[in-house]
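thought: fold this chain, then report.
action: predict
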Amino acid sequence: PLMSDPRKQPAGTLAGLDLTVPDAGAVRDFYADVIGWRPMELDMGGYADFAMTAPESGAWVAGVCHARGGNADLPPQWLVYVLVDDLEASRQRCTAGGGELLTEVKGSGSAPRYCVIRDPAGAVLALMQRVAG
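observation:
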């Protein structure tokens, strides 16, 4: 899930935080118990992923997702989304700088476009196309 339409925020802004795992329900319950996040089901067409909300404000703080569909190739780790002005240019600079593209560009229509990369040290994050607001 994305935090309050962050695509309209400046490039370089953290836009969201997701965890993709085989059993999102079990991990959802773990974080609900350990942190106090409240899960909200998101219909994914045949199964549900979860927006985790802050206990007091109800604001979305993270997503816990199944490793299915468009998320099947995502690694089982917390994934930070960072906004960029030009996704294609950032992808090119990633590989030119010794990084690796882990996914193709995902998202279409009203869904934000993003891809997952690995930096030269091995850290993984997602680049998300910023939409000017």
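thought: worth noting. The chain is about 15% helix and 35% strand.
final: tokens above.
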